Amino acid sequence: MTKLREDIVENIDTEIEEYQELPKNIKEKLEWFQDQKLGVIFHWGLYSLAGIVESWQLSEEDDWARKKPWRNDVTELREDYWGLNHSFNPYRFNPDEWAKECKNAGFRYMIFTTKHHDGFNMYDTKFSDYKITAEPSPFRKNPKRDLFGEVAKSFRDVGLNVGAYYSKPDWHSPLYWVPGEHAKGRQASYNPKEKPETWAKYNEFVTNQLTEISENYGDIDILWLDGGWVNARDEQLDMDQIAQNVRSNQPDMLIVDRMIGGKYEDYVTPERKIPEVPPTKVWESNIPLAKNWGFCPNDIYKPFEEILDSLVQVVCLGGNLILGVGPKPDGRLPNEALAILRPLGEWLDTFGEGIYETRAIPKLTIPGWIFTQKDNHIYAFQKRNEQNSLELKQIREELPVVTCLNTNERLTGEIISPIHDESYYQIYRLSY
């Protein structure tokens, strides 16, 4: 069961959905995924040049995206927007710098937008001329013109894992929004049941693109499929064939047909929120650093403490966190984003042992405290303003060896009394 909520489609049954039978290698890959804990997702495309909320203004029914319209007339807006491929030129793009900053920030994996709903391809696809590597793109002669390929290589070079975001709908494709037909909203301009031949061609187009992504760009750990209205109603892609194709090249690839449920949603992706009740499937909260996923001038960025809170809360609930960064149209990462990522990396350098490779302790609930566990350690987190003492026998009868990670001091006694310093979180390692 689904409901529309502004820019996202939210599956309201994810908290209770169970897995169907999973292959052994995918089960192992999901365990690996839960160890990673922190990822980054780059939404980048023509919309960064327009400075608008990704490509949503192209959808006539999505009025929420046009509170500040880029053009007043939708027809003019679409024409001008799709013409941005003449001028989008990320001449300051340096994927090695991106990778360095993200490695230092503590990210373990990266997802890159190969194509958003607008249909502009940020990689060198053979199945569309509407791409960064073809005329009239001014970037087509740049040695780094295959943006996804360059980012993937740079991130692998520093030891980070790679994922590909791909939008199942394609508003630029004449097989999805047919020229001369009125596309009222997000969906195809026609009913696939009434035009099965056209839909079959579109299905082939999507299958071909996803297959080439899995073939041409090295090891890809995650295929993150967006546009949840496709595969939810009458617009049914042949996911059995798609999965067979991509996994013939990448046997351990996780497929995230997000917001759909079923066997091709290997993990679930609550958007812009931390779930009150953790899903039964493996999960990943996705939260942008700013108000928008893509770059917008004068965007409002979240305070560092809010991002840190999100990370700790998500991990203590048993999930992963992926943070959204919108690169600028010239290819640089915004300074406002770096001002959050750099202290996040410093924090993780000190306290990351209580984050990475940990799992939740669902039955351990003590007011003012949240916990993770790893091997024979329990990590106890308390916000600076909570100041609640912790009686160790509330956790186990056996008393642990307790170390305060803030001060690296070993504590004695049966009660942890909060320390008074400037750290946002007080964190203790309980070793049994």
Can you tag this structure with a few keywords?
432 residues; alpha/beta; TIM Barrel; 2 domains; 9 helices; 26% helix; disordered N terminus; EC 3.2.1.51
Short description:
With 432 residues, the chain is of the alpha/beta class. Helices cover 26% and strands 18% of the residues.
Describe the structure in your own words:
The structure is a single chain. This protein is of the alpha/beta class and 432 residues long. It has 2 domains: 24-354, Alpha-Beta Barrel (TIM Barrel); 361-431. The protein is built from 9 helices and 17 strands. It has helices at residues 24-36, 46-50, 74-82, 95-105, 147-157, 196-216, 239-249, 304-317, 335-351, and strands spanning 2-5, 8-11, 38-42, 109-115, 161-167, 222-226, 254-257, 284-288, 320-325, 359-360, 370-374, 377-383, 390-391, 401-404, 409-411, 415-416, 425-431. The strands form 4 sheets. A 7-stranded parallel beta sheet has the order 7-6-5-4-3-9-8. Strands 10-11-12-17-14-15 form a 6-stranded antiparallel beta sheet, with helices on one face. A hairpin with a 2-residue loop joins strand 1 (2-5) and strand 2 (8-11). Helix 6 (196-216) runs parallel beside helix 7 (239-249). The radius of gyration is 23 Å and the shape is globular. The relative contact order is 0.13. Mean pLDDT is 95; it is low at 1-12.
